[in-house]
Amino acid sequence: MVTTSAPELSVDVAGNPYVEVFFDPSGLEPDTAYIRVVRYSEGREWPVRGGVNIAPGVAALDFEAPFNVEATYRAQMFTATGASIGWTEASTTVLEYVGTIVHQPLDPTSWVPVDVMPGSVSPLTRPEEGTLVQTEGRDVGVWIGSGRRGLRGVGVSLQTSSIAEADAFRDLQGSYAVRQIGTVCIRTSSSIRWPRTFFVRGDFAENDRTVRFGGTKVTFDARVDEVEPPFPGLAVPLLTYGDLDAAYATYAERDAAYATYTDMDRDYSLAGLAG
Question: Is residue 104 a part of any domain in this protein?
Answer without folding.
Answer: yes
